[in-house]
Amino acid sequence: xxxxxxxxxxxxxxxxxxxxxxxxxxxxxxxxxxxxxxxxxxxxxxxxxxxxxxxxxxxxxxxxxxxxxxxxxxxxxxxxxxxxxxxxxxxxxxxxxxxxxxxxxxxxxxxxxxxxxxxxxxxxxxxxxxxxxxxxxxxxxxxxxxxxxxxxxxxxxxxxxxxxxxxxxxxxxxxxxxxxxxxxxxxxxxxxxxxxxxxxxxxxxxxxxxxxxxxxxxxxxxxxxxxxxxxxxxxxxxxxxxxxxxxxxxxxxxxxxxxxxxxxxxxxxxxxxxxxxxxxxxxxxxxxxxxxxxxxxxxxxxxxxxxxxxxxxxxxxxxxxxxxxxxxxxxxxxxxxxxxxxxxxxxxxxxxxxxxxxxxxxxxxxxxxxxxxxxxxxxxxxxxxxxxxxxxxxxxxxxxxxxxxxxxxxxxxxxxxxxxxxxxxxxxxxxxxxxxxxxxxxxxxxxxxxxxxxxxxxxxxxxxxxxxxxxxxxxxxxxxxxxxxxxxxxxxxxxxxxxxxxxxxxxxxxxxxxxxxxxxxxxxxxxxxxxxxxxxxxxxxxxxxxxxxxxxxxxxxxxxxxxxxxxxxxxxxxxxxxxxxxxxxxxxxxxxxxxxxxxxxxxxxxxxxxxxxxxxxxxxxxxxxxxxxxxxxxxxxxxxxxxxxxxxxxxxxxxxxxxxxxxxxxxxxxxxxxxxxxxxxxxxxxxxxxxxxxxxxxxxxxxxxxxxxxxxxxxxxxxxxxxx
Amino acid sequence: xxxxxxxxxxxxxxxxxxxxxxxxxxxxxxxxxxxxxxxxxxxxxxxxxxx
Lengths: 724, 51
Description:
With 724 residues, chain A is an alpha+beta fold.
């Protein structure tokens, strides 16, 4: 087992290593338990965590006492393939998996079509009379087509069942494999002795439908992995460190230590948190803060790892190593929140184990009873029960509906990245909204202007606007619509981190931070809003409130969500005044301001403790943890990669409208799933007794099974076509 | 009935060809990205055709 591709962290102080990988093939709580037991029993292994919902295994081990190869081998010996978490190897592995799944489906589909035609011929022949030699040819041909379908396309089920049996546990694959092998063996036997029924059509059709169900399901699971990978890729693998002698060297991200001086080129990502050593810098912190505006920093400011350097090359002194950076701790928070979630998945798996056990018990009972009454019909009745009870419609009921709803949402501008998002969204009764970047755009807008006595407000605004016309700073957009009254500023220069300075009609004006613009009688109330100040000759002239503007569809979306019976909350890291203004505009009560990521999590947890199911809508990296903590979460498509990774859904197209439609669709989807499950269960309840009584030949059972699956898929299809 | 003796092997050959074609397509990245081609038409960087 090649260990080098796997993600391993080694703690230099204690010498402990931590490796994470995906265990491919893990489907049920039993699998997770057996991995945990086996790996924990190895010498030199300190701890094992298995997350069933994400298929992730995390092993803590001591390098001298154990090797990673042996740990991976022991997992492989249980029948699970260890797949690297990240990087090219992981992408290649998932690619290969998707391709082989497609090939299996293709072979099964083509085989099914072919055999169905022969079967129609055979059945028609059974009524109208058929040449014995031709019937024999059709059967033998069917057998030779079924064989590769069973061995190649059906391999996942056969292997899964074999691994289950070897571990002495019952998975979903066991009854499936039992039905497949029994049906094929009996059909082959009957073909060779040239009498009795053949069930080749049932075998191939069965494999085909099951594979499709599984493909749909695994596609959904993959979405969330891609997001995690995008997140880890946002940090560079290496950085440029400045040596004591003034030269520079490339070092790996993991080797950066506190106090190292690093050089960050223009356009490069800042690798770790650090103190700025150059006098000024312009960085894009959208990945870290979610605010997409470029931010000015003066020397000595703390820069955050994950931000992008937009200005000249800068130097910074690392204030910690890669694992203690803001971004890394955000990731850790998020992973913890994620790992607390998979209740639904676990419940479903426990139910599945019971379902499988009862199917097998029922089949054995039927076989026993028939052997007692009429041994000649025992095989057919048992096979019919196995096929009829195959959880095909049952197992398609949810994925088909989810796939349909996902497709419908994608057309509505909402991308679903986690399979259980829709289920959770349907049950949500509370929405927590972030403000900046979510309810508002990052486009700044000019608010109230306060001028002191010396100059009228309109004149001050015109001067400020004239200065800002010369600036590329994002705040300049707030003044873009102001009439500058023909003013012609000269010698405008940008003072990094402070503001603008320029001459108009011989007077030098300064616009920017308060301490930069000038001193004197302050004309502003306490800092409730973001402001810039205008000054001349060291005196303050005016201050301008900078508002962020509401998204065009924010009010409409809020109304739609409230009409859907949802309770809305705003939790923002912004100043009280700005938050209160937005909340009042939207008619949302009790907004919470100055919320750190931890405060937002506390809010969500408190709401959850009151029994609410919470939808979190956010966009920034600081929202990552709370997005992961909420029952279901949605991130703005324009937002930070971390938020994308943590969220269950993404809103595309830079508008909010999708979320209200998503709630409607999710509720419709929940109704559809319930309807589908009722249908599938109802079908099984009716079909099982009839099959057990021996009144259903296996081919009718297979057709019934297929029809029930098709009906379920058709319902889902109809749902996806309905207009929102 | 003897036509069936010809048609069935012929169908088998066609089946084999179809499977081989499908496997070839999967192995040559035809199914790796089914969305991009559809989206391409909406992308603005198209050059107008030269006349």
